[in-house]
Amino acid sequence: MDPLEDNALYGLRRLELELVVHDFVSALNGRRSAGLAEHMHPDIVFRPSHTRCAHGRESVLAVCSEIWGAFERFDVQVEQLAVRHDMVLIEQCVLVAIDDASPQRLLGFASFRFAGLEIVEWRQIHA
User: 3-126: which CATH number, 1.20.210.10, 3.10.450.50, 3.40.190.170, 3.40.30.10?
Assistant: First the structure.
């Protein structure tokens, strides 16, 4: 394959992964389990914090449901995004609120590792 064709294919791959992450975040914000599940590998590993780890699609969806149940508002805003090979990194601002309280901003990062177009590992780091 010539270098120009190789760069074009890599550019398309990067765009595909970026679009999957944006769709995944949109499903997370919309509290749509089915929208999340369609992007998850069956054996996904989710690390929502340094003390917790969920293995498998059903366990990850249960953690997401737990998060949605804990907050009246839960909204992830992607500030920056970078793609490198099979990894997507985002800088994020998460707005959370309990009941009618003013939303609090949590800054952090998330990483998504892919196999094909499925997320096989999702990590969260909050500042």
Answer: 3.10.450.50
